[in-house]
Amino acid sequence: MKKYACLLVLLLTLGMLGCENEIQTFTILRQPLVTFQTDTFNTQRTSNAIFFGGATSIHTYPNNTQQSFTRFVLESRGRDNSGRDFILQIEVDVVVNGSYVGVYQPEYQPAVGGLADFRFIIREGNSFIEYGLAPGGDQAYAQVIAQSNEERIVRGIFAATLVNRTDGTAPGIELVNGTFIDIPY
After folding, report:
1. Which of 39, 82, 163, 177 could make an S-S bridge to 134, C-beta 3.0–4.6 Å?
2. 123 forms bridges with which residues in the sheet?
């Protein structure tokens, strides 16, 4: 029995001498993704997205006080399930404090900011149909859930009920279950 124990210790010792401490580096490749549904069965996806901005905007509250914000735009482009090109633009006015995390709605909050505009544009042949927030509409939100300052990316969710801005008598559109993941800024 002692022979086997000695042999086992010898084999383990020799095995450990052959091991090296190697440092391995892994790189995480981030792929931006925007998804949303235009109805129960049609989920749209695109990886062509960016969160950009920097322009100053001024918002006037109902009591006539004003506040300045920095406007950022989440823009994504892609093709819907019918093969039509689309552009989705969500404009948010942000309180400049280094963080974009927050819920943005058409009704502005002094500590966070607000949703300046929400557009969904579809190309039909040689013409465009633009959907957007109704004047005074409040049926939309965009929420930045997380932000990585090191990687300069954001992720979040959104939804909106939009009116047809191209033809005011045509039906609107609902965008639901919207997500944006790893969008660079």
Report:
1. 163
2. 128
Give how far Cα 10 sits from Cα of 20, 21, 118, Å: 18, 21, 70
* Between 168 and 108, residue with greater pLDDT: 108
Q: Summarize pLDDT for 42-88 with one digit per residue, the tens.
A: 899 999 999 898 799 999 999 999 999 999 999 999 999 889 999 99
Identity of residue 22: E
User: Are 92 and 113 spatial neighbours (Cβ–Cβ below 8 Å)?
Assistant: yes
φ, ψ of residue 2 to 5 degrees: the values are -65, -35
What phi, psi does 144 have (nearest 5°)? -85, 115
The whole-model pTM stands at 0.80
Residues 6+ apart with CB under 8 A from 54: 70, 71, 72
Encoded tokens for 92: 């948010």
